[in-house]
């Protein structure tokens, strides 16, 4: 069952087509890697799904019915589509726990809130840091906290843009386990990254974008072997 369906999506900036009649479908329970050279349209795709950028044409459907291209950013977030931006954006003057409370959202009942915070702390490996100020965390820990804040909102769709940028090899390896721990049968996860070893470890399938179109879709091993993918991206 598809959790998120992108149909014939085009985004135009001035005269430039950042997404060009792009279609793809992501299953519930799936972790999808989205890769491709700089300027391929990866971030633009996440921007359209999260309502930050308007499409020229096409549709993005969440679940059975909700057309995200007709929804506001706030409506999309309320529908359970949550995004982690490339630069960590935690609240530095609040504790880790307080950041997670914000992640839960205002309407969350206390018992459910406690459950989600414990789950998020555990998955992010931040249990011993719960009462520290977020501003005092290491860069990698801030990235994990931001993912944990996304998780605390109980999202149906998680969009992660370059989650291991600037992380050490050891932190990157830990992030693989963290992201795989976010998987749920009713949740779709989209991970944009340039780190191919990371994508191979974390994603079930990959979509290779180039000039706003799909160049390849399938297993990472197949992407590595596809001549066009090697030519425009992996071989450089
Ligand atoms: N707001 C905007 N106005 C004009 N052009 C834009 C805008 N946002 C993105 N673009 C252009 O659209 C193209 C796709 O950009 P996008 O950020 O989606 O690429 P990307 O695949 O995320 O690349 P990277 O790997 O470098 O992050 C680029 O050529 C970019 O310059
Ligand atoms: Mg980008």
TrEMBL record:
Residues forming the ABC transporter domain are: 4-236
What is a GO molecular function of this protein?
Answer: ATP binding
Q: Tell me, what's a Pfam family for it?
A: ABC_tran
Q: Which UniProt keywords apply?
A: ATP-binding, Nucleotide-binding, Transport
Domain of life of the organism in this record? Answer: Bacteria
InterPro entries the record matches: AAA+_ATPase, ABC_AA/LPS_Transport, ABC_transporter-like_ATP-bd, P-loop_NTPase
- Alphabetized Gene3D superfamilies for the sequence: P-loop containing nucleotide triphosphate hydrolases
Q: Which PANTHER family match?
A: CONSERVED COMPONENT OF ABC TRANSPORTER FOR NATURAL AMINO ACIDS-RELATED, HIGH-AFFINITY BRANCHED-CHAIN AMINO ACID TRANSPORT ATP-BINDING PROTEIN
Name the record gives this protein: Cobalt import ATP-binding protein CbiO
Annotated source species: Methylobacterium iners
């Amino acid at each position: 069952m598809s959790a998120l369906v992108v149909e014939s999506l085009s985004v135009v900036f001035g005269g430039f087509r950042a997404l060009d009649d792009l279609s793809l479908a992501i299953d519930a329970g799936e972790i999808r890697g989205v890769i491709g050279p700089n300027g391929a349209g990866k971030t633009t795709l996440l921007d359209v799904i999260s309502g930050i950028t308007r499409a020229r044409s096409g549709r993005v459907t969440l679940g059975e019915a909700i057309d995200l291209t007709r929804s506001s950013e706030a409506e999309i977030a309320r529908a359970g589509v949550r995004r982690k931006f490339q630069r960590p954006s935690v609240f530095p003057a609040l504790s880790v726990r307080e950041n997670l409370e914000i992640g839960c959202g205002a309407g969350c009942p206390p018992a459910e809130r406690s459950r989600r915070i414990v789950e998020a702390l555990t998955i992010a490996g931040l249990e011993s840091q719960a009462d520290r100020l977020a501003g005092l965390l290491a860069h990698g820990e801030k990235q994990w906290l931001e993912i944990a804040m996304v998780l605390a909102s109980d999202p149906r769709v998680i969009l992660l843009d370059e989650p291991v940028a600037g992380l050490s090899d050891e932190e990157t390896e830990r992030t693989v386990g963290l992201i795989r721990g976010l998987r749920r049968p009713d949740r779709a996860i989209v991970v944009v990254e340039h780190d191919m070893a990371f994508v191979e470890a974390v994603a079930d399938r990959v979509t290779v974008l180039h000039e706003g179109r799909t160049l390849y879709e399938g297993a990472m091993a197949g992407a590595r072997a596809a001549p066009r993918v090697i030519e425009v991206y992996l071989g450089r």
